[in-house]
Design goal:
Largest sheet: 7 strands, mixed
Number of strands: 11
Bound molecules: adenosine-5'-diphosphate
Number of helices: 10
CATH class of the largest domain: Alpha Beta
Helix content: 25-40%
CATH topology of the largest domain: Ribosomal Protein S5, domain 2
Number of domains: 2
Length: 307
């Protein structure tokens, strides 16, 4: 096998109460990539369609993640990568993570799986470091493992895959506005109160428990972010209306996807998720803000071979 065409999924990080530790994998939103073995050593990005992003190996997360993996191997050949982006960079649904994760996942498949999923996460995290300055795993872990993932610890890296109930669907709306990463970071506060941490921990425990027991009501009650959402949501026009309307329509809960500006909602069943999508778009129609909207079941596998 010298070549693979893969689907590299979009992901939702944080999922309300799991700031920096929780993420989930989407099934119908993502990029396509072709990874091919070549005689020349190293990594070459030969095609990048759909987004204006750097193609130099050391400036593209796919190149950086791939090079990190190559450092652990002694190969007499290299890889070339074609990236077909469907996920817009800076949307808050793991655009860079899809490229980092997709690259190392496909390389591992082509090499006969020398690495574990956890090792792949650590290579992909180096791509994330290029995109955002920190080697975070909350998007690459669900892109590689599927379902929900919890990063229990970074040192040492300890990632737990949490199964999603079969009827759980995500709706994601991406308002076409730019939120600068520096702004979404600068609104965060570095200290939180004991009261806030108690509320957050209670909800995170509730959400994890609800996922394991397919208790949709508990999942809904637990989708609450006491710490980050109140600060970051002010950067997203229409956030409060979109969230409230989604819940009034029947969504289990809603919140900011990653660092925004995308907003996600979780629902029981596809029909409800589609109804919620329609409701969420109304606000942006009224505000005259363009948007993309997606409905997806939770992807239990992560990256996959296509075509
Ligand atoms: P989000 O998670 O909000 O979708 P990202 O964390 O993916 O956003 O950030 C995108 C950043 O990563 C942009 O600055 C972009 O230039 C950079 N980048 C480098 N390589 C890629 C790639 N292959 N795909 C997407 N973004 C990339």
């Amino acid at each position: 096998m010298n070549e693979l065409k893969i689907f590299a999924p979009a992901t939702i990080a944080n999922v309300s109460c799991g700031f920096d530790v929780l993420g989930l994998c989407l099934d119908t939103v993502g990029d396509e990539m072709i990874i091919r073995k070549i005689a020349e050593k190293g990594i070459k990005i030969t095609k990048l369609v759909g987004q204006d992003l750097p193609m130099e190996t050391d400036k593209n997360v796919a190149g950086v993640a791939g090079l990190t993996m190559l450092e652990k191997l002694d190969l007499n050949h290299g890889f070339e990568i074609e990236i077909y982006k469907n996920i817009k960079a800076g949307s808050g649904i793991g655009s860079s993570a899809a490229s980092s994760a997709g690259t190392v996942w496909a390389m591992n498949e082509l090499l006969g799986k020398p690495f574990t999923a956890k090792e792949l996460v650590s290579f992909a995290m180096e791509g994330e470091k290029l995109a955002s300055g920190t080697a975070h795993a909350d998007n690459v872990a669900p892109a590689l493992l599927g379902d929900f993932t919890l990063i229990r610890s970074y040192t040492p890296l300890d990632i737990i895959k949490i199964p999603a109930p079969s009827k759980l669907y995500a709706t994601v709306i991406h308002p076409q506005i730019e939120v600068k990463t520096s702004d979404s970071r600068s609104v965060l506060k570095q200290n939180i109160s004991l009261k806030e941490s108690i509320i957050q921990i209670g909800n995170l425990g509730g959400l994890i428990s609800g996922l394991y027991t397919s208790d949709y009501d508990l999942i809904g009650r637990s989708l609450h972010d006491e710490i980050v959402e109140p600060l970051r949501s002010i950067l997203i026009p229409g956030f409060k209306e979109v969230k409230e309307s989604a819940i009034a329509c029947g969504a289990l809960g809603a919140g900011i996807s990653g660092s925004g500006p995308s907003i996600f909602a979780l629902s029981k069943g596809k029909e409800m998720a589609e109804k919620v999508a329609k409701t969420m778009t109304e606000t942006y129609k009224t505000l005259n803000i363009d948007y993309d909207v997606h409905v997806s079941k939770i992807n239990s596998k992560g990256c996959r071979i296509i075509g």
